[in-house]
Amino acid sequence: MLSITNPTLKKxxxxxxxxxxxxxxxxxxxQAGFSHEFLDSLRHRTTRDLIKVSEFTDLEFxxxxxxxxVLSILQRLDLQRRDAKMLEYFVRxxxxxxxxxxxxxxxxxxxxxxxxxxxxxxxxxxxxxxxxVRDQIHTRWHELQSRQSDATMRDQLYALHQSxxxxxxxxxCRTLNEFNx
Length: 181
Known about the structure:
With 181 residues, the chain is mainly α. It is built from 10 helices and 2 strands.
């Protein structure tokens, strides 16, 4: 249990209890172990009384925290942040709209809107790299697929672009698909 001694936090907790009572959460509070007498008394007190109660230094609130839940939410936030950065990276480095839609599960309208914010309107489709560079791209791609077999297509394309940073992602994708046509 975590001990809460801060008067502001104690007042907020008391307010939360009163709000729960007023919004139909009385049964939940009773099941949590609060008595009818306590809840009734708390509900009919003025804000000034609740402030005075929260200022008593001897009064200590104890709360529990679901650590695993907080960690899970933090991990989800990290993944969302990583996905947003990766999405921006793909847009800035010339991935085709359809590729981005597939890899990031976004609509074409969303991708075009993001592209209009991040990329100059003068940006044009890049040419295919020379044959010797395309051969290097194919070789590197096969290395990545065998070494990172559990990685997502997005992560593999990112790693491929890291190996060929001067080549737009769209040109890399067209190179990878040049024999599929």
